[in-house]
Amino acid sequence: MGNNFRGVRNLAFLFMASGVVACANAGSGGAGLGADSGGGVKHQILAEYLDSQDDFPKLRFYDSGLVSMNDRCPVRRTRLSAKMPAAYVNGRPIGFC
Questions:
Q1: What contacts 20, CB < 8 A, 6 or more positions away?
Q2: What is the rounded distance in angstroms from the CA atom of residue 28 to the CA atom of residue 15?
Q3: Which of 8, 57, 65, 84 could cysteine-pair with 96, CB 3.0–4.6 Å?
Q4: Which domain holds residue 7?
Q5: Burial class (CB within 10 angstroms; exposed 0-12, middle 13-18, buried 19+) of 13
Q6: Lowest mean pLDDT among 17-21, 83-87, 88-92
Q7: CA–CA gap between residue 33 and residue 35 (Å, rounded)
Q8: CA separation for the pair 44, 8 (Å, rounded)
Q9: Which of 10-14, 18-22, 39-43, 75-79 has the weakest average pLDDT?
Q10: Are residue 52 and residue 20 in the same domain, yes or no?
């Protein structure tokens, strides 16, 4: 009887998970996560460059209004991307590439 209950529980979980995925796709128009109708990925601009003429400008993030602590990506040591969300450390934003 224990194995039968486990199977029913797994089946119920499968139906619940498929319902969540169906609702998520219905809410996004069926386009899936991060995709637009053209087949590409939609990007949202999350910040603005303070000095666009500078080689490595800092970013001001729209959600908090704070300026990034760094001027280079800590991963690749390149220019920060306005399309990447900040990671907040002690309430201060760190930008990424």
A1: none
A2: 20
A3: 84
A4: 1-35
A5: exposed
A6: 17-21
A7: 6
A8: 42
A9: 18-22
A10: no
Distance CA 40, CA 54 (A): 30
As a dihedral over the C-alpha atoms of residue 58, residue 62, residue 65, residue 71, rounded to 10 degrees, the angle is -10
What is the helix (H) or strand (E) element at residue 14, kind and residue range?
Answer: helix 2-27
For residue 66, the tally of other CB atoms under 10 A from its CB is 15
Six-digit token string for 68 = 């990034």
> Residue 49 pLDDT > 90, yes or no?
yes
Task: Examine the domain organization and report whether 7 and 47 are in the same domain.
Answer: no
Instruction: Count other C-beta atoms under 10 Å from residue 95's C-beta.
Output: 26
pLDDT in tens, 18-37: 444 444 444 444 444 444 45
